[in-house]
Amino acid sequence: MSGAARFTPGARVRVRDDWPERRGPCHIRTPHYIRGRTGTVVRPLGAFANPEDLAFARPAPARTLYHVLFEQGPIWHEGRPGDTVMVEVFEHWLEPAEGGA
Amino acid sequence: MPDETRIPATHDIGGLARFRCTPVEHDEAPPDAFGKRVDALRQVLAQKKLMTVDELRRGIESIPEEEYFALGYYERWLRSIAALMVEKGHVDAEALK
Amino acid sequence: MAAPPRPESLALLDRLVAALEAKGIVTEAEIAERQANTDKASPETGARMVARAWTDPAYRALLLSDGAAAAEAMGVSMAGAPPLGVLENTPTRHHLVVCTLCSCYPRAVLGYPPGWYKSFAYRARAVREPRAVLAEWGLMLPDSVEVRVVDSTADYRWMVLPMRPAGTEGWDEARLASIVTRDALVGVAVPKAG
């Protein structure tokens, strides 16, 4: 899982619309409000041991972490157009987004 | 239109409407003696590889919702650290009662 | 203000430390040493880094590309600390740092997070209505400025490099550092000349 980053700066990505907290004990670092949302990769931040495993003292493979940028408007349906939120998201939460902006 | 498959976990509070009208208080105070001691204890245990910050967070996140919002910041930490030390067999649950 | 810890929490801490000591796992001296070390970190470090970046282009480049190396260059040990990222404010972009999931904060260069940073209100609101939160604290940003909220969710810690205010021409590093507040390094304020 470590090694080359799958996504490059500028890539459009969709955050998986997954809710593991509804299936049982877990620890995830992907906030609820970006699940299912499409954003843009700002840059890869390096590879880090997966916190989802570290939280349970399991062997934790390194996963690539990205800074991903989202428009505020579609998330909250309020605010000034053009305002954004930038979130650290692990690669296994991301999939390529079809279409572009 | 409630969707029970999309309810965030207790700690995942970004944008949560219940705090919409709560002003952000200018609370500048550094941690009190209790907080600093809990903070330092966590660091010592992490240095000794007895717990990770990820485990600390998992423990905090498993605190029931009403207690999560009622306890102080470092009280939540302490709950988590104590539970982890029992879970890992470093201390007996009886010794904490 | 934060409520004091309840008596049962104070008792639990005493019992936990005593149990760990009895098992030879920790000592009071180790806890005291860690605390003394943690107490030394303060926003003055972040302020000095910003002041140097304002006056030294090479340091500015280092700060923006590798915050931890820039901190080490100021004599701060980053051993064991998470990587530090620094985000540059511009005339058209303002960064505001929050951690909606817990309280991630660049402690190595800013010290303990203040109470408000850890509060439910800040964690919940900063990410959704940043302009309202900033306005309540007296910072009105024009519509021409993009507010970029930075939700500190994972392995990095983030600090803001604010813009150097007008009226500080010719100031030395120490004087510049004196106007860089902790709030400006989080993004809830901007430095002012005086």
From TrEMBL, chain A:
EC number per UniProt? 4.2.1.84
Q: Where is the Nitrile hydratase beta subunit domain?
A: 4-96
Q: What is this protein called?
A: Nitrile hydratase
Q: Which UniProt keywords apply?
A: Lyase
Q: Does the keyword Lyase apply?
A: yes
Keyword Glycosyltransferase in the entry? The reply is no
Q: Give the Gene Ontology MF terms in alphabetical order.
A: nitrile hydratase activity
Q: Which organism is it from?
A: Neoroseomonas alkaliterrae
Top EC class for this record? lyase
UniProtKB/TrEMBL annotation, chain B:
Keywords, sorted A to Z: Lyase
EC code: 4.2.1.84
Instruction: Fetch the InterPro entries from UniProt.
Output: CN_hydtase_beta-like_N, CN_hydtase_beta_C, Elect_transpt_acc-like_dom_sf
Q: The organism sits in which domain of life? A: Bacteria
GO molecular function terms attached to this record:
nitrile hydratase activity
Residues annotated as domain Nitrile hydratase beta subunit-like N-terminal: 10-96
Provide the top EC class.
Answer: lyase
- Report the protein name in the record: Nitrile hydratase
| Species annotation | Neoroseomonas alkaliterrae
From TrEMBL, chain C:
**Domain of life of the source:** Bacteria
Coiled coil (residue ranges)? none
Q: What EC class is this?
A: lyase
Q: One MF term from GO for this chain?
A: nitrile hydratase activity
- What Pfam families does the record point to? NHase_alpha
Nitrile hydratase alpha/Thiocyanate hydrolase gamma domain location, by residue? 14-189
Identify the EC number(s). 4.2.1.84
**Keywords assigned by UniProt?**
Lyase, Metal-binding
Q: What is this protein called?
A: Nitrile hydratase
Species in which this protein is naturally found: Neoroseomonas alkaliterrae
